[in-house]
């Protein structure tokens, strides 16, 4: 017997309703509201971090600098080397699980409030409003023939867009190349320098994404929009239109009773569509293009306030709540993500705290052994010492192998901050007493200025059978 998978219609297509165009500029209307305020505060804080931290100094160097040329990554008092790449991998995994947790709990709020594509798009749309006017004025300007007024407004808009893009590109590249030197190169128009070329490239990408492509990036290019719906369940918070309350929609007098006229609370003003940065109609149901920014909620609540209706015709809610139930927060998948995320964050903090500030790698020479001029057996080793601190240090190397073996190495090593020293050393067997063909040994490296900083690395000593 064949079983059919039940299907639910989430969007009804009205044949009399014109299809929403997929191409062309989307002109959003200005609006106010609590979610807009929240987004502006969050975006302002992120902008302050992004544009401000890059100019901070720490111990006579840039506080946050991922120095790719020297393969050193400075984050205030901590310096990370390529050997610490596992920490970066762990951080990316934590970010991924954090995104999964947020998506299961509240849908695409990451996209609407903190995604760089959305944040810079809102900034570019604000510039558009300042230079060309609000929605209706911009629509008229698009339809108007070219004139000095249109050229002036368009020139001002694109000039500000290019300025913001250039500052964005400079700041981004400044996290990988010292930004003060990079700014000097840019002011001196050294356009063929690698750093300046990267600035121009990222500025062009910002201008293209936030100014020209906008919602097309979210709709057609972003992979997150493709798989995020798989993570939703009936308790995920989404922006939804309460059709049971709003339908049938239609215009009415402010002092009229909608139910007496056979109408719902929706007056079909289309403000929710006019403020949407991706140009969708939230009343058509859950859609791929919705980024969860809450703009339609602010617009609808404003209309409800003017009419004296209750807010929440468009709101953050769950499918279960729309069906008359209550949203469940303690559900297995959400709790599982929360536990996994908490454990990973705790382990990551522990790994950072326990990260050794010096490193010693030992590689024995591919030759098994050799005999010196005194007839003693020697093994050759190559040591790589790494000072992971931000200050010069003195180190002493010792051998833990008993009295039968002697380490032939300098008494002291001096390494600058972040320096990597690669040196050969040898170990000589001065006594055959109690020694076999293979002897387990340990190299011990100790910081002379901070005795608590010590690291041991095992190896083997090989000799011929006597």
From TrEMBL:
Domain 4Fe-4S ferredoxin-type: 256-285
Keyword Iron-sulfur: yes
GO molecular function: 4 iron, 4 sulfur cluster binding; metal ion binding
Keywords: 4Fe-4S, Electron transport, Iron, Iron-sulfur, Membrane, Metal-binding, Transmembrane, Transmembrane helix, Transport
Lineage: Bacteria, Pseudomonadati, Pseudomonadota, Gammaproteobacteria, Pseudomonadales
Protein name per UniProt: (Fe-S)-binding protein
Domain of life of the source: Bacteria
PROSITE patterns hit by this protein: 4FE4S_FER_1 (PS00198), 4FE4S_FER_2 (PS51379)
Pfam family membership, one: Fer4_18
TM ranges: 38-58, 85-106, 159-177, 189-210, 334-353
Organism: Pseudomonas flexibilis
GO cellular component: plasma membrane
């Amino acid at each position: 017997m064949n079983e059919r998978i039940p299907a639910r219609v989430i969007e009804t297509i009205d044949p009399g309703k014109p299809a929403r165009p997929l191409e062309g500029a989307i002109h959003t209307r200005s609006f106010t509201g609590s979610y807009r305020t929240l987004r502006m505060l969050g975006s302002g804080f992120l902008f302050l971090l992004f544009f401000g931290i890059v100019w901070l100094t720490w111990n006579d160097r840039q506080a946050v600098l991922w120095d790719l040329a020297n393969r050193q990554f400075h984050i205030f008092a901590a310096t990370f080397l390529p050997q610490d790449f596992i920490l970066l991998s762990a951080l990316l995994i934590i970010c991924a699980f954090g995104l999964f947790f947020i998506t299961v709990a509240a849908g695409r709020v990451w996209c609407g409030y903190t995604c760089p594509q959305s944040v810079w798009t809102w900034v570019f749309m604000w510039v558009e409003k300042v230079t060309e006017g609000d929605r209706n004025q911009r629509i008229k300007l698009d339809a108007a023939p070219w004139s000095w007024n249109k050229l002036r407004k368009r020139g001002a808009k694109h000039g500000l867009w290019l300025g913001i893009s250039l500052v964005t590109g400079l700041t981004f590249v400044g996290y990988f190349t010292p930004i003060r030197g990079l700014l000097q190169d840019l002011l001196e128009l050294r356009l063929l320098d690698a750093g300046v070329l990267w600035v121009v490239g990222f500025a062009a990408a910002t201008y293209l994404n936030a100014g020209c492509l906008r919602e097309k990036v979210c709709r057609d290019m972003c992979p997150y929009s493709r798989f995020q719906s798989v993570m939703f369940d009936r308790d995920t918070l989404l922006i939804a239109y309460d059709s049971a309350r709003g339908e049938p929609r239609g215009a009415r007098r402010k002092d009229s009773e909608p139910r007496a006229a056979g109408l719902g609370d929706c007056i079909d003003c289309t403000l929710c569509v006019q403020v949407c940065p991706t140009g969708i109609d939230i009343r058509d149901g859950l859609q791929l293009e919705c980024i969860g920014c809450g703009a339609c909620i602010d617009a609808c609540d404003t209309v409800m306030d003017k009419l004296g209706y209750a807010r929440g015709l468009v709101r953050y809610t769950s499918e279960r709540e729309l069906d008359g139930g209550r949203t469940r927060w303690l559900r297995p998948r959400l709790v599982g993500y929360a536990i996994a995320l908490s454990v990973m964050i705790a382990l990551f903090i522990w790994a950072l705290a326990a990260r050794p500030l010096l490193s010693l790698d030992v590689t024995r020479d591919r030759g098994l052994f050799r005999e010196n001029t005194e007839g003693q057996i020697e093994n050759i080793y190559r040591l790589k010492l790494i000072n992971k601190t931000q200050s010069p240090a003195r180190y002493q190397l010792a051998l833990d192998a008993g009295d039968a073996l002697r380490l032939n190495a300098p008494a002291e090593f001096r390494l600058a901050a972040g320096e990597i020293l690669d040196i050969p050393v040898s170990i000589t067997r001065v006594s055959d007493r109690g020694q076999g063909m293979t002897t387990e040994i340990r190299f011990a490296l100790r910081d002379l200025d901070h005795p608590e900083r010590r690291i041991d690395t095992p190896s083997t000593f090989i000799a011929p059978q006597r």
